[in-house]
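We treat protein structure as text, and this decision shapes the records that our systems exchange. This encoding replaces a full spatial description with a residue-level series of whole-number codes. Below, we set out a record of this kind in full and without editing:
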Amino acid sequence: MEANYSLSRHQNTGHGHATIPFGTLSESRNTFVFEVLYPVPSDQHSEHSSKMPGYGQFLRGQIQTPPMPQVNLTGRTILITGANSGLGLDAAKLLVQLKCSTIILVCRTIAKGEQAKKVVQSASSAGGHLPQIILLELDLGSFSSVAAFAERCKDLPRLDAAILNAGVQPSEFSLTEGYETTITVNVISTFLLATLLVPVLRQSAIKYNITPTIAITGSAVHFWANDKDLTTPPDGQILKTLSDPKKTDMKVRYFLSKLPVMLLVKHFANMLTASAERDPIGKPLVVTNNVAPGFCYTNLFRDQGAAYNAVIKRVARSSEHGARTLVHGGTAGKETHGQYLSECKVKPYSPFVKSKEGDKTAQRLWDELSAIYEGVKPGCTKEL
């Protein structure tokens, strides 16, 4: 069955069973987030989830307010997917404040994008800076839509950064382009888009002597995904195994989708580094990083129910604050290449991502993705 869904931005989330009443929030609202909102399979944690990798890093980061980016974006062109609402829309409004010259709002439909464009234009008028605002259509549930979108981007006179922020967190299993919808949108199509945008960004790098950036939205939940879901399938069968309804737990599927994202950002960055070293003139570096906006309240949770949303609203970071991390990722320098970013800082990967087994798994994932991408646009992976 093909999925019927809308795209919104990704975000980091905590997890655990809802066993703590509202009245016990005084110790730490963020511990509450971590322990309450998401179920974690019993084989993924010890007696207490605070012993899980990344738990302390998540909580320490969540209580911080991400700093306002201090950068003047005059002359730059920045593209944002998932820009019609949530963090994507707030990131676009922030780009206006930072005097970005051209802002490309990428939405699933033009109709959804038109309202977002009005919001950004209103922010422009209020702030006195009037950027060029371009509205483009992209459906990450369609590989052909991704390919067509990338072709349109070739006509852009300049592209400094692509903030790949669109994503889904469906509560029910469905297939899109033959794969489970979360995996298709958050992983396969996102990296297909990144692959196809690299030549576009390189042309701007050559023409304007810049170092362009691809910022891909990630999440702290990559720490808590079960790496066995990626390591145990046979070679060439990871994505198909993840798309088997008998082997899929949708309660933790969003968690799992974020682990291959982090693995692939690291692997993708290494490939781009190697190409830039071999051919620095023809294939200049495109910085690629993985941005975790923190636990934010956006419409990503719209399918999770009223009670769930009531909890989230009490504990989450604002969308405006989370958007700062996206803009930081899209405007940061080479020091963020291949890195995991949170609270506008480089943070450690999960132990699995840092491991040799993680590197091996990333290569296996890339081999599977490459076969898909070559079927969409022959030769595209060779251009990297």
